[in-house]
Design brief:
Radius of gyration: 22 Å
Domain HTH gntR-type: 2-70
Distance between the termini: 40 Å
Shape: elongated
Strand content: 25-35%
Strand order of the largest sheet: 4-5-6-9-8-7
Number of helices: 8
Largest sheet: 6 strands, antiparallel
Keywords: DNA-binding, Transcription, Transcription regulation
Structural class: alpha+beta
Protein name: Trehalose operon repressor
Pfam family, one: UTRA
Oligomer: single chain
Length: 239
């Protein structure tokens, strides 16, 4: 026979899918759920923990268990896609806010990341990505000006990739990506809607043109409830 906490978990999942508990609503308290399902508080906690682990709820101290939006952006690990292209295919309401735009000489870290000299100029572009009204991604882009001239704040608000390919006539080749999970910084809490979240997913992108020239380093900081990284893998041959 199935464990009772699993039965409660599945019943709550069904109610969330049926919007009996809609997005951003608060589930009944542990005490109320204990009475509702005629079970122990420990059983309810197991069911709620499983809901949290699978991305259905976020437990926030002093508020309770908040139902999360199940629609997540799917970021292809091995592909290169712009934010504009991604949100366009998913049909979600999206907005880009340019928080910082400047052309300056690089600091030692950006010199290292982009493999450039101190006299090279770099576009510094920080963009906040809003999905369905929530600020969930902070993209921190550093782009070599000699490779990608003529950037403007308006271009950055629309799509840098689109500008590179359609206006400059350059072809973007490939990217190297690194993934980490970190504690949010003060900047993350200031610029993103991070209430109740204590981790942030950081994706470092090193992006190259088709002639293998590195032109952009991006640190993309994602709120953990709103993304899913996906890939397709095929096993090649037999071991």
């Amino acid at each position: 026979m199935k464990n009772k906490y699993l039965m409660i978990y599945e019943d709550l999942v069904e109610k969330i899918h049926q919007e009996e508990y809609p997005v951003h609503s608060i589930l009944p308290s542990e005490n109320d759920l204990t009475d509702l399902y005629s079970t122990s508080r420990e059983t309810i906690r197991k069911a709620l923990n499983l809901l949290a682990q699978n991305g259905y709820i976020q437990k926030i101290r002093g508020k309770g268990s908040i139902v999360l939006d199940l629609k997540k952006l799917q970021f292809p690990i091995s592909g290169l896609v712009s934010f504009k292209e991604l949100t366009g295919t998913m049909g979600q309401q999206a907005e880009t806010i340019v928080a910082e735009f400047s052309l300056k000489k690089p600091d030692s870290n950006i010199m290292k990341q982009l493999q450039i000299e101190k006299d090279d100029k770099v576009w510094k572009v920080h963009r906040i990505r809003k999905i369905e009204g929530e600020k969930i991604i902070l993209d921190k882009d550093y782009i070599i000006e000699s490779q990608i001239p003529g950037l403007t704040e308006e271009i950055c608000k629309r799509s840098i990739f689109e500008y590179i390919e359609k206006v400059l006539g350059r072809k973007i080749g490939f990217a190297k990506k690194e993934f980490t999970v970190e504690e949010p910084t003060a900047e993350d809490y200031k610029l993103l809607d991070m209430e109740g979240f204590h981790a942030i997913v950081v994706v470092k992108n090193y992006i190259y043109l088709d002639d293998a020239a590195l032109f952009q380093y991006t640190e993309s900081r994602h709120r953990p409830d709103k993304f899913r990284f996906v890939d397709f893998a095929r096993r090649m041959g037999n071991a």
